[in-house]
Amino acid sequence: MAVAQRTEKDREEGPETLGQQQLLRYTSTLTLNRVKPLEAGQYSLMVHNKAGWNNVTFELTLR
C-alpha cells in the first residue's frame, strides 16, 4: 500500500520555485517486501511526459 501526503508546511507555502523548475516535496510510505538493507540509498530516474524529460530523485530508507 502506498500513501502519499504533503506536509502542512508544503500546503501553506506551495511548491518552491527554483528558476524555471519547481521543487515539490512530499513523503510517501510504500511497503516493499523484497528490498534488502543494502539497497537503501538515493535513486534517480528519468521520466517523460508531455512537458518533456526530467530527473526524479528519491531516497529509500528502511525501517
TrEMBL record:
Biased composition (Basic and acidic residues): 1-14
This protein's name: Immunoglobulin I-set domain-containing protein
Alphabetical list of InterPro entries matching this protein: Ig-like_dom_sf, Ig-like_fold
Region (Disordered): 1-22
SUPFAM superfamilies the UniProt entry points to: Immunoglobulin
Organism: Myodes glareolus (Bank vole)
